[in-house]
Every structure is written in C-alpha cells, then in structure tokens.
Amino acid sequence: MEKTAPSVLIAGNPNVGKSLLFSRITGLGVITSNYSGTTVGVKTGHFSHKNTGYKLVDMPGLYSLDVETSAEQETVKLLDDCDMIINVVDATNLERNLNMTLQLAEKRIPMVICLNFWDETIHKGIAIDHAHLAKVLGAPVIPVSALQNTGIRELLEALDHAAVPAYAETPDNRWAAIGGIISQVQKLSHRHHTLLEILSDFTLHPAGGLVSALLMLVLTFWGIRTIGETLINQVLTPLFDHYYLPAVLKLIAAIPWELAQTLLVGQGNDIMRSFGILTTGIYISVVLVFPYFLAFYLIFGILEDFGFLPRLAVTFDSFFHRIGLHGYSSIPVMLGLGCKVPAFMATRMLATKREKVLTYTLIIMSAPCMPQSAMIFSIGMRHSGAAIAAVFGTLLVVALVTNLLLNRLMKGVPPDLFMEIPSYRMPSLILMARKLQLRIGSYFLETIPMIIIGVFIINIIDTVGALQTISQSLGRTLAVILSLPEEMATVVILGFLRKDVSIAMLAPFDMTTRQFVVASVFLVLYLPCIASFFSLIREAGPAQALKVVGLTFTSAVGVALALNWAFLAHQYISLK
C-alpha cells in the first residue's frame, strides 16, 4: 500500500468519542451517538498540521485486541498500516480503558493518549495527574473534550512528540499494572449525586426502566405525530398546492410530447392517482414521508445523544431474546412504530443477517406506522374500542408468532447483551443539527430517488392499461375471499403508495365491524409502502427484501382469511 501522507489511526474502546474527535480534526460529518456501535465501518479523512498532510483513520471501537470474529480481525489489521496512533480514552473510566492502551503499547507504534471527556472528570470529582501518567506510560497524554471542542489543538501539537510507549506488560500482569498506575495518577473526591445520575439509576432498575421506557415511547410518538402533521398540514401541503404544483404544471405544459408529460406529471387531477414523477413522486417522498422522517430523527437524535437508547435495549432484552432477537432490536422496532423508513435504516447496528431478517419482519408486522395508527383510531371509533383493540391485538400476535416460527427455522442463537451503559449527557445542539443534516442528506440522495423510481414504474403500468385490469381482478378476489367491497381494490393499490391514505379511504365505505377489522389488518400487513419497500431493498438487498415482503403478504392473506371466517363463525353461532 503506497502512503502519500503519514497515517494516524484513532483507536480505543467503543463509545469513547473517537468519531466525534475524527469529525473535529478532519471537518468531515459523521454520525456520532451516546452508545457503542455507532461506527460499524472504517472512516478515512485528511488534515494538515504545520504544513504536513496526514491521513486519519477512524477505527471501530474494540475492548481488546484479542479478537475472535472476522470483522474484528480486519479491524485489528488496521494497526499494521498506520504510522502513529491516537489512543482515545474515556477519562471517566480510566482503569477499564487502560487495558486497551497497554495492548496498543505492545504493538510498538508511536502513540499519543487522548483523555476524552475531561470536562466530565472534573464534574464527577475525578482528579487525574495527566503529566505523571505521561511519564509512567512514556508517551504524550493530552486532556481533551471533543464535545466541547477543547484540547484539539494541543492534541495535534502532541503528534510531533508521539512516542513508542515504554510501558508494556504481559497479559498476566496487565491488570495488576493498571491498578498500580491508577493508584499513582487518579484521586476521587466525595460529592453528591446529580439529578442525571439519580435518573440513570432509576432507569437501570427493571421496574423503573420499564416505566421510563413506556413513558418515553408515548412522548416520542406524540411528538413525532405532532411535528409530522404540523409540517404536512401547515407548511408543506400549502407550499406544494399553491406554489410548486402550479409552477410544475405550467412548465411541463410547454413540452410538446404527450408521453413526456404523462411520465412527468401523470394523468388526471388526483395527485395520488396521477403517478407523475414530479407530482405523485415528489408529493409522497417530500410532503408525506419526509416530515415524519424529520420528526423521527430529531427526537431520536435527542434520545441517542442523551444516552437513553442503551437503557431501552437493556429493558427489553429479556423479552426480545424469547423471540430470537437481541435487545438492540428494540431500537429499530420502536422506530418502526412511527415510520418504517428510519426503522430499516436503524437495523445497520445489528450484527448478523439472521437478526436483521427477524427484525425486518417484526418491524413490518408488529404495528402500523404512526399515520396509520391515527387513522385506525379515527375510523375505528365509529365502531367500538373493541374493534380497535382487535386490530392492534391481531397484529401483535401475528408478529410474535411469525418471529417465533422464524426463530425456529433460522438456525442460530441471539447473542448475549454485552453493552456499555453510558452516562446521561446533555446533547449538544450544534452536533445534533449536524447529525440531522447528514441524515436528511442521506434521505434526499438515497431514499427519494428510489421512491420516484417506484412511482415511475407504476406510471408505466397504468399508461399501458394494465393497472385497471389488475384492479378489476383484485376487486373480485377481495369480495370472494375476504367479503370486502370490490371498490376496495383501489384502496389496496393506493396503499402501496401511502399506507395511511389507504386506511383513511375506508371511511366512505359503509363497513361492518367485521369488514373494518379485516380490511385494517390486511392493509397494514400486505405490503410496506413504496418508501419503506425501497428502503428495505437498500438495506437488505432485492432478494432478501422480496423474501420478507413475500412472507408478510402471505401472512396478510392468511390472517385476513382467518379473521373473516372467525367473525362469520361467531355470527353464525350467535344466530343459533
């Protein structure tokens, strides 16, 4: 490998601020969070210091260089290609972090030790003599707060004095040596617990964790719905209707080719039925889906930077293990209760393909997204609270039974939950804004094009007349096997574009309670919306995505049939 600049490797335990330090030094935007596992791949950037160019590599976090998995082995190999190391250490947990420091010392590579979270050590009453620690280790030790952006300049200055640590121990003596170092350089002073520490203790208790998790879920969904609906109704829909759409229609009308007009703006005045790239495509992706995406990641960013998500994973780990999943799966599943698009993206934190497939299935089947849930409650109240409970209860049972079956069919054992619980930290508004900007950019560059491609394909099918034929055949099928109105075929087709609209379109039908429950369950399960579908393809690959969707569609038909027959059987018995 040809080196054009000295290579500096950022190494350390998970969740010690390596990615944030990388971003501070290089100026590159990266997703950082207050829980381990944020960096799942290697990130590379460049920076200059004293007219010298450097390559900076952000190494995924490891607790030890004695690794087992192939991914961890590849990570350790990064040490073979670096010229020096910045060892990032959590200064609030110095004893535990020094194990990695001494292992890195055995590699005989020039090193600088970065004591991160220095501001928190002062706040917690931890006094570290960093100058004496540098003498003991034989390498520069620099106090830094990457969050507060302090100590970065001093850290870069120390690169000129990077040294091979003189302190190295055999594995048998390493922890004894660490104890000796701690006794020399660290002193603890008595202080009272802060409010955040009291809250942390409460949320780690089994009962307190469950109460706080349920309360946070309720507040999260309320916030997401409020922000999403406000943006849709008060901001984006008026802008689309009064400014964007008239301008686009006027511009496209000047194009002399009818086929081009059909593809770009579609046919007819119904924005959801025109299937135009610049009308339906933009309306779905920007006006309908984006507000909920924005609301999700705004609130999700607060929770992850605050440090709540690892506690959520711990709280639900026991339950998720019963269906073959890791506690970490609770995070994307929680997101899926609001919107499937960010939920599928959040599965990147899961380690194995098996975990991801099980989580994909649970995300789709466990409950409708937030807009669908709102519509089910709105229309369901016309019937009864029992009808609403029947819809959500059926979905929950189906999701759990399906995952239990998949857990038996897919060989493997969910990994034990080994997770560092970080301290609660007040989020930085600047860092949250940067992270939200990165996620919005990812949505516009990756998700919106796939939604538009999907709308384009449907437009082609509609233009050649195949959509009407499909609708007629589907309507007859729904009437025969599910006892639903034939006109519901249009609802089913539109549901692929926008799921909450499909539920809302049940309102004009004079449905019985049986038909409402059957139709709602079927519409939630049969297919993910177009945005979710292409997001799933992007995360899982086309083949795996089609398998998951095929399973959920089969389940939707089977469950709807069973529900319909159960209602009919109950009515028959009641008549007798």
Describe the structure.
- The protein contains 24 helices and 8 strands.
- The chain is of the alpha/beta class and 576 residues long.
- It has 2 domains: 182 residues, P-loop containing nucleotide triphosphate hydrolases (Rossmann fold, 3-Layer(aba) Sandwich), CATH 3.40.50.300; 365 residues, no CATH class.
- The strands form 2 sheets. Strands 2-3-1-4-5-7 form a 6-stranded mixed β-sheet, with helices on both faces. Strands 6-8 form a two-stranded antiparallel sheet.
- It starts with 6 loop residues before the first strand and ends with a helix.
- About 2% of the residues have low confidence.
State which percent range the strand residues make up.
Answer: 5-15%
Question: Structural class, please?
Answer: alpha/beta
Q: Tell me the total number of β-strands.
A: 8
Cα Rg: 28 Å
- Write down the domain tally: 2
Poorly predicted spans: 32-40
Strand order of the largest sheet: 2-3-1-4-5-7
Compute the average pLDDT.
81
Percentage of residues assigned to helices: 55-70%
- How many helices in DSSP terms? 24
Sheet of most strands = 6 strands, mixed
Inertia-based shape:
elongated
Oligomer: single chain
How far apart are the termini? 83 Å
